[in-house]
Design goal:
Blueprint (H helix, E strand, L loop, with lengths): L24 E4 L5 H10 L1 E3 L9 H4 L2 E4 L6 H6 L5 E4 L9 H7 L3 E2 L6 H16 L2 H9 L18 E5 L3 H14 L2 E5 L14 E2 L12 E4 L13 H6 L5 E4 L8 H9 L5 E4 L9 H9 L3 E3 L8 H20 L2
Parallel strand pairs: 1-2, 1-3, 3-4, 4-5, 6-7, 6-9, 7-8, 9-10, 10-11, 11-12
Helix pairs in contact: 1-11, 5-7
Length: 328
């Protein structure tokens, strides 16, 4: 396990001193909310993704803003004027970090800004899986008769949740489940200090696997790297309670999808809620067998895609770049 990359952030509502040379060019390599674009235009010479000049970002950009676009080592090497990269959201795995480090180019992301919306999706997925909402709604939409006596979900009140990774999102999830369901909380984060989360009643696990026999819901909030790739595999799924629910809103690849499919087919766990997949967006061709279990709700990485959060994270990333360039 490893901590999410944390860069200094500036609150999106903080007042900005506009003394920076307005000739510095920020290239928006993807579409962003109009409110965030207007904010960027107040601080930088802003080049939008539909401008023909966008093709020249490697030659002319002082800074770029990305959300999902991959920035390779070759991109970094070719961008000779580039001084900073703004990244909407927390994950920075789409950007070649070694190349940035060699050039001294910071990746200014927005950890914590999307925590509430992602935590709400954890809650939504857990409730949807627990009440079999996907299976019921899909059957009804196909024209099949679904009677209530054929449905048997489970309640979540007083159930136990295990949270792997207690950063901004993990702690928001813990507070939400405590408030909604009076949940018992197991928490694991080897990078947090001993007195972390003192305001949240919890049992701290030194190893995340030791919580598996005790929790009804397991949710993972870790970055994808060599240590976490496939960390939830057949061995770990076998340790979980038969009626438990697995949630992943972090990154595809953390859960071994083949092992999960087999566990669901064999009834070893109750269900799973996945906002992240090895293939994104997930397709029927790849996930037909997994979805055919009727025990999975899949969404296409929408944890931070609320209207409010999109504005906040984009604006915060812009502010972070502006702040960094202002102190150079």
């Amino acid at each position: 396990m490893a901590p999410s990359r944390i860069e200094p952030t500036l609150d999106s509502t903080e007042r900005i001193d506009t003394a920076l040379d307005s000739k510095l060019a920020m290239y928006l390599l993807e579409q962003f909310p109009p409110e965030a674009i207007r904010h960027c235009q107040s601080l930088f010479k802003t080049v939008l993704p539909d401008d023909v000049e966008i093709a020249n970002w490697q030659q002319n950009a002082d800074a770029i803003l990305v959300r999902e676009k991959t920035i390779s080592a070759a991109d970094i090497q070719g961008a000779r004027k580039l001084r900073a990269i703004g990244k909407q959201g927390t994950g920075v795995d789409i950007i070649d970090q070694n190349a940035c480090k060699k050039r001294g180019i910071p990746i200014l992301n927005t950890p914590g800004v999307n925590a509430q919306s992602v935590a709400e999706l954890v809650l939504s997925l857990t409730m949807g899986v627990a009440r079999e909402l996907r299976t019921i709604s899909v059957k009804q939409a196909s024209g099949a008769e679904v009677r209530k006596e054929h449905c048997c979900g489970q309640t979540l009140v007083n159930k136990t949740i295990g949270i792997v990774g207690m950063g901004n999102i993990g702690t928001a999830v813990a507070r939400m489940f405590r408030g909604a369901f009076n949940s018992t909380v197991y928490a694991c984060d080897p990078f947090a200090p001993a007195d972390a989360w003192a305001d949240i009643p919890h049992t701290r696990a030194q190893s995340w696997e030791e919580m598996l026999p005790h929790v009804d819901v397991l949710t993972v909030h870790v970055p994808l790297n060599k240590a976490t790739c496939g960390m939830v595999g057949a061995a770990q799924l076998n340790k979980m309670r038969p009626g438990s629910i697995l949630i992943n809103v972090a990154r595809g690849g953390i859960i071994d999808e083949d092992a999960l499919t087999e566990a669901l087919e064999q009834g070893r766990i109750f269900g799973a809620g996945l906002d992240c997949h090895e293939e994104e967006p997930p397709t029927l061709k790849t996930y037909e067998r997994l979805w055919a279990t009727g025990r999975v709700i899949s969404t296409p990485h929408i944890g931070a895609t609320t209207a409010e959060t999109q504005v906040l994270t984009a604006t915060c990333a812009i502010n972070n770049v502006y702040k960094y360039l202002s102190i150079l």
